[in-house]
């Protein structure tokens, strides 16, 4: 039998893609993936366990997760028809580009930002227009974004942005809606850490081209559950409902997410603690020799440090503390992204950094 190059038969737009690498190594302190590392209250965990125990696994899920949708709709003061649930925000981002992008259409992004936007666009044969942020402030170039968006099918803006931490100026969203005809996806994966006033969900009702993405992976401490949701005009939701993998949100995820949204008041002290820890950690990081820390409204901090890649490797190998290396990324030379952990975890990080950076040889 001749050897067959089966891989060469892949659809051309998908050639060259590599499996996603979260750059994870087992470490005692993992501050690398912007997860919520605070333990949830025991009473909340018990409710999750009860909900799972009461959920039959032999039946297919409700495709649109209507009980959860209703809970989310009531929270955000919108109709069920304005909410779509997905297997993490990632699924919804992909499905949005799959639905509204495609050959001959473009997606505008403002890097450095969440890399998946670009990956999903390429998979969907959608052109990507990158409007780079200011190299120092790392804030978006408003005029250039509005200009680029005039020709675009979709603009994706992240607020707060990953990995830079800044909240979008609502005036930029206003301009994108008023001065362009693009669909505007506002990714609010981290918005709970920026305070109650930071979300623009309330704008959706009056702006049918605005779509707001949220997730239970961050503030809700449920990254492993895989549950995100979109708030958008019912016409957008109908399109997504028609093209989605029908059972992508499994019964256990629906059951736990429904409880989590109901019990969201229990999470407020955890979010408040992360916000307080963020301030303290930013101050401590900024005192390291040669460090620059960008202001952050999210549950992570971007820090520029001399020899960042070496620092990161030594934190991992010598101190079992994992942070995310962005030093290879365009515009982020010598940058690390540090998730804000518990007080004890942040202390471990700072002690390790002191040993690595101030002990020399980094
Ligand atoms: N948007 C941003 C900006 C993110 O950083 C992430 C996850 N890291 C997501 C969306 C997707 O999160 P999830 O799929 O866990 O909901």
Topology:
Layout: E1 29-30, H1 42-53, H2 66-76, E2 83-86, H3 88-100, E3 106-109, H4 116-123, E4 127-130, H5 142-149, E5 154-158, H6 170-179, E6 183-187, E7 210-215, E8 228-231, H7 234-243, H8 251-262, H9 268-286, E9 292-293, E10 300-304, H10 308-319, E11 321-322, E12 324-325, E13 335-339, H11 343-358
Parallel strand pairs: 1-11, 3-4, 3-5, 5-6, 6-7
Antiparallel strand pairs: 2-8, 7-8, 9-10, 10-13, 12-13
Helix pairs in contact: 1-8, 2-8, 3-4, 5-6, 10-11
The structure holds 4'-deoxy-4'-aminopyridoxal-5'-phosphate.
Residues 34, 88-90, 114, 158, 162, 187, 189, 215, 217, 223, 228 line the site of 4'-deoxy-4'-aminopyridoxal-5'-phosphate (PMP).
Task: Walk me through the structure.
The protein is α/β, with parallel strands linked by helices. The protein is 36% helix and 14% strand. The protein is built from eleven helices and 13 strands. The chain has helices at 42-53, 66-76, 88-100, 116-123, 142-149, 170-179, 234-243, 251-262, 268-286, 308-319, 343-358; strands spanning 29-30, 83-86, 106-109, 127-130, 154-158, 183-187, 210-215, 228-231, 292-293, 300-304, 321-322, 324-325, 335-339. The strands form three sheets. It has a seven-stranded mixed beta sheet with strand order 2-8-7-6-5-3-4, with helices on both faces. The radius of gyration is 21 Å and the shape is globular. Bound molecules: 4'-deoxy-4'-aminopyridoxal-5'-phosphate. 4'-deoxy-4'-aminopyridoxal-5'-phosphate binds at residues 34, 88-90, 114, 158, 162, 187, 189, 215, 217, 223, 228.
């Amino acid at each position: 039998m001749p050897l067959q190059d089966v891989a060469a038969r892949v659809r051309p737009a998908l050639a060259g893609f590599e499996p996603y690498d979260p750059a994870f190594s087992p470490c005692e302190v993992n501050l690398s993936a912007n997860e919520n590392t605070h333990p949830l209250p025991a009473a909340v965990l018990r409710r999750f366990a009860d909900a799972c125990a009461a959920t039959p696994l032999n039946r297919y899920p409700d495709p649109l997760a209507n009980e959860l949708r209703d809970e989310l709709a009531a929270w955000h003061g919108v109709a069920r028809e304005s909410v779509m649930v997905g297997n993490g925000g990632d699924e919804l981002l992909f499905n949005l580009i799959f639905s509204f992008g495609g050959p001959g259409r473009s997606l505008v992004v403002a890097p450095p930002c969440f890399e998946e936007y670009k990956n999903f666009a390429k998979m969907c044969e959608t052109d990507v227009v990158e409007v780079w942020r200011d190299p120092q402030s790392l804030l978006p170039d408003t005029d250039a974004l509005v200009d680029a968006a005039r020709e675009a099918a979709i603009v994706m803006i992240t607020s707060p942005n990953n990995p830079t931490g800044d909240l979008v100026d609502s005036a930029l969203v206003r301009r994108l809606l008023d001065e362009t005809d693009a669909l505007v996806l506002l990714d609010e994966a981290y918005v709970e850490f920026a305070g109650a006033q930071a979300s623009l969900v309330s704008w959706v009702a009056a702006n049918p081209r605005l779509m707001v993405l949220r997730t239970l992976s961050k503030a809700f401490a449920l990254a492993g559950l895989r549950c995100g949701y979109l708030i958008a005009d019912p016409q957008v939701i109908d399109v997504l409902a028609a093209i989605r993998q029908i059972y992508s949100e499994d019964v256990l995820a629906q059951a736990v997410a429904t409880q989590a949204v109901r019990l969201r008041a229990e999470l407020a002290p955890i979010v408040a603690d992360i916000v307080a820890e963020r301030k303290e950690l930013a101050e401590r990081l900024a005192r390291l020799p040669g460090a620059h820390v960008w202001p952050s409204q999210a549950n992570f901090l971007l820090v520029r440090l001399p020899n960042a890649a070496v620092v990161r490797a030594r934190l991992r190998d010598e101190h079992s503390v994992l942070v995310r290396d962005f030093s290879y990324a365009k515009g982020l030379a010598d940058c690390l992204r540090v998730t804000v952990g518990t007080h004890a975890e942040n202390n471990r990080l700072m002690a390790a950094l002191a040993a690595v950076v101030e002990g020399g040889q980094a």
